[in-house]
Amino acid sequence: MNLKQLRLVREIVRSNFHVTEAASAQFTSQSGVSKHVKDLEDELGVAIFERRGKRLLGLTDPGAEVLKCIDRVLLEIGNIRNVASTFSNGQSGTLKIAATHTQSRYALPKYLSEFRSRYDDVEIVLLQAHPREVPTLLLSGECDIGFATDTLDDVPDLLAFPFYSWEHEVIVPEGHPLQGRENVTLQEVAQSPLVTYDQGLTGRKQIDRAFEKLALKPRIAMAAIDSDVIKTYVGLGLGVGIIAGMAYDADNDSGLSKVSLKTRIDSSQTCFALRRGRFRKDYVYRFIEMCAPAVTKEVILQAEALRDEIDGTI
């Protein structure tokens, strides 16, 4: 058994069991991947993958348990490197953040600017990701912190903390009948096609719930994951837009107007999350405290210890 075999098994799962993609990601050949996996299965005495001919269909029951162990082993390998780097490089290094477009564009800039002014020896890598990709990037160790709405809760190997609450706003292009109106109802909004977020993303469930409460079924003209894309197509006249409130700026969004709603859409909660069990440099905790002063290093470590105790891992 060796680390290359373990990494290949994990990469195959990440690649949705496409061996060719896994081989490319690990800079090896398809035949090399197959041989490494077969050697590992022979050593363990169990099949890790279900097969149909040469195709991999998924994990066997033993394979699912083996994968959990592989994830823990590779996590600790990464921790060893991080510990060594901490003692050899002090406060220098890299802070890797995964965040959705809305958080990257509108919520994080002031915190990243402040962090940069204090830690000029730390490189910042901002990975802009689809909301459903943020947990995956955290679990794989490709980032230190992840920011998203709706996709970080209830992921067992993540610790999630609240970042801030926000509300949706309705926007219309100049000249729209709703422009300048006060106390506009959702019934009136539903008479126009809507341009808003994709299902399951950026508080979309709050939007859907608000209309469902009124037995309304609005016509979705376009759904996207990017607030700026939504604003662009509202400006082109595709429909009325519903976006995260922080994404609208009256000074910069020329050609668009915010509508005053009579009944507000329920607020949404953006969270940030960390991978459980991962060693973190001190500047990671300092950045978190800039974003959420109440979430100190001690709070995070206590939360992690409590989750470990609940799961029976200590």
Please give a quick description of this structure.
By secondary structure, this protein is an alpha/beta fold.
CATH class type of the largest domain:
Alpha Beta
Overall mean confidence score, pLDDT: 90
**Number of contiguous helices:** 12
Strand order of the largest sheet: 4-3-5-12-6
Helix-strand sequence = HHHEEHEHHEHEEEHEHEHEEEHH
Low-confidence stretches: none
Indicate the CATH architecture of the largest domain.
3-Layer(aba) Sandwich
Percent in strands: 15-25%
What percent of the residues sit in helical stretches (DSSP H or I)?
40-55%
Radius of gyration, in Å, reads 23 Å
Specify the overall morphology: globular
Oligomer classification: single chain
CATH level-4 homologous superfamily of the largest domain:
Periplasmic binding protein-like II
Biggest beta sheet summary: 5 strands, mixed
Might you state the CATH topology name of the largest domain?
D-Maltodextrin-Binding Protein, domain 2
Alpha-carbon distance between the termini?
A: 26 Å
DSSP strand tally: 12
Number of domains: 3
Protein name: Alkanesulfonate utilization operon LysR-family regulator CbI
Domain HTH lysR-type: 1-59
Keywords: DNA-binding, Transcription, Transcription regulation
InterPro entries: LysR_HTH_N, LysR_subst-bd, WH-like_DNA-bd_sf, WH_DNA-bd_sf
Give a description of the structure.
- There is one protein chain.
- This protein has 314 residues and is α/β, with parallel strands linked by helices.
- The chain folds into three domains: 3-70, Winged helix-like DNA-binding domain superfamily/Winged helix DNA-binding domain (Arc Repressor Mutant, subunit A), CATH 1.10.10; 92-165 and 269-311, D-Maltodextrin-Binding Protein, domain 2; 168-266, Periplasmic binding protein-like II (D-Maltodextrin-Binding Protein, domain 2).
- The chain has twelve helices and twelve strands.
- It has helices at residues 3-14, 19-25, 30-44, 61-89, 101-107, 109-118, 133-139, 186-189, 204-213, 227-235, 282-291, 297-311, and strands spanning 49-52, 55-59, 93-99, 122-128, 145-149, 158-166, 168-173, 194-197, 220-224, 240-244, 256-259, 268-275.
- The chain has a five-stranded mixed sheet with strand order 4-3-5-12-6, sandwiched between helices. It has a five-stranded mixed sheet with strand order 9-8-10-7-11, with helices on one face.
- Helix 1 (3-14) packs across helix 2 (19-25), helix 1 (3-14) crosses helix 4 (61-89) and helix 6 (109-118) packs across helix 11 (282-291).
- The two termini are 26 Å apart.
- 31% of the residues are buried.
- Keywords: DNA-binding, Transcription, Transcription regulation.
